[in-house]
């Protein structure tokens, strides 16, 4: 069990999940409590997410409870931590884009089929997305290497574009950005909008403007508390994050027919 320090990127379980021809690999990025990560953890290798394992949980906040959810999962899920400001302090002259490329390097080393942003509170830049698409080579300058990383991952370039999807607690075009739940709730109570909801969308450089994959309205009552509304909203999120992840996995790595019959 290793601890996460500001400058280091370490896994809590150096035993990487072996890749098998039909198994599907997820990397999940988090910043907070990780209840949506937990929904994905619980769905692994069930009919909801057949033949699928989370191979890395990456957080930009050391105190994110989602890291605990990963390390206490059975089997434990490798974790990594890299925050922007400590990275910049530890690497004078490096930029936010350099940080994003280091994020991409960490993600690519895990060889995911799909990357899920589940409460990930950092806007990723185009270089990150290009690295995941495979249109930008990410040279491993030896910075932030996992203790368990091996040199054969020096230039992790994906052979196929790796989709990145994001869970956003608002309807398409509504309340882009952070704090969307509270902003939407308050707008509804002021009568400015007549419906609210959640979606999972593909991630593009423009924040929350990628193609919606799954959109669900969340019922809300005039006068009800934010807490009551938010609890209802999160329950919908836990469903659609699994559904959207399965849909994108099936796009990029469909299961062999015999596996679906057994799923
Ligand atoms: N390029 C993209 N990056 C991200 C997207 C996206 O669609 N395109 N989705 C977001 C998730 N998100 C809303 O769904 C979101 C998260 C965070 C922010 C934001 O303003 N972050 C600030 C830092 C805030 C903080 O640290 O508390 C920032 O990155 O400077 C906006 C939208 C994930 N990334
Ligand atoms: N803009 C992104 C954003 O606001 N994401 C939101 O953060 C929460 C994470 O909860 P969790 O950490 O319990 O999964 C979720 O409600 C998710 O929609």
TrEMBL record:
Keywords: Purine biosynthesis, Transferase. Pfam families: Formyl_trans_N. This is phosphoribosylglycinamide formyltransferase 1. The keyword tRNA processing does not apply. Belongs to the GART family. GO terms for cellular component: cytoplasm. Residues 25-134, 161-245 form the Formyl transferase N-terminal domain. It comes from the Eukaryota. The keyword Kinase does not apply. Its EC number is 2.1.2.2. Pathway: Purine metabolism; IMP biosynthesis via de novo pathway; N(2)-formyl-N(1)-(5-phospho-D-ribosyl)glycinamide from N(1)-(5-phospho-D-ribosyl)glycinamide (10-formyl THF route): step 1/1. One of its GO terms (molecular function) is phosphoribosylglycinamide formyltransferase activity. It catalyses: N(1)-(5-phospho-beta-D-ribosyl)glycinamide + (6R)-10-formyltetrahydrofolate = N(2)-formyl-N(1)-(5-phospho-beta-D-ribosyl)glycinamide + (6S)-5,6,7,8-tetrahydrofolate + H(+). One of its GO terms (biological process) is 'de novo' IMP biosynthetic process. Transmembrane segments: none annotated. SUPFAM superfamilies: Formyltransferase.
């Amino acid at each position: 069990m290793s601890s996460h320090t500001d400058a280091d990127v370490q896994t809590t379980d150096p035993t990487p999940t072996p890749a098998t021809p039909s198994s599907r690999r997820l990397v999940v990025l988090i910043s907070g409590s990780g209840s949506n990560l937990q929904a994905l953890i619980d769905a692994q290798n069930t009919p909801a997410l057949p033949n699928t394992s989370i191979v890395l949980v990456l957080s930009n906040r050391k105190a994110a409870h989602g890291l605990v959810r990963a390390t206490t999962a059975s089997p434990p899920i490798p974790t990594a931590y890299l925050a922007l400001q400590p990275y910049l302090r530890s690497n004078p002259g490096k930029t936010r884009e350099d940080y994003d490329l280091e994020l991409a390097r960490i993600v690519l080393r895990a060889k995911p089929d799909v990357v899920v942003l589940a409460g990930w509170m950092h806007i990723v830049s185009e270089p990150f997305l290009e690295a995941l698409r495979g249109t930008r080579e990410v040279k491993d300058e030896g910075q932030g290497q996992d203790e368990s990383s091996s040199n054969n991952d020096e230039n992790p370039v994906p052979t196929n574009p790796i989709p990145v999807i994001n869970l956003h607690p608002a309807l398409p075009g509504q309340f882009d950005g952070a704090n969307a739940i509270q902003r939407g709730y308050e707008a509804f109570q002021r009568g400015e909008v007549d419906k609210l909801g959640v979606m999972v969308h593909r991630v593009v450089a423009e924040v929350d403007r990628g193609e919606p994959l799954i959109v669900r309205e969340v019922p809300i009552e005039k006068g009800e508390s934010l807490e009551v509304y938010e609890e209802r909203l999160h329950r919908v999120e836990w469903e659609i994050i699994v559904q959207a992840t399965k849909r994108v996995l099936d796009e990029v790595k469909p299961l062999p027919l015999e596996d679906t019959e057994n799923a």
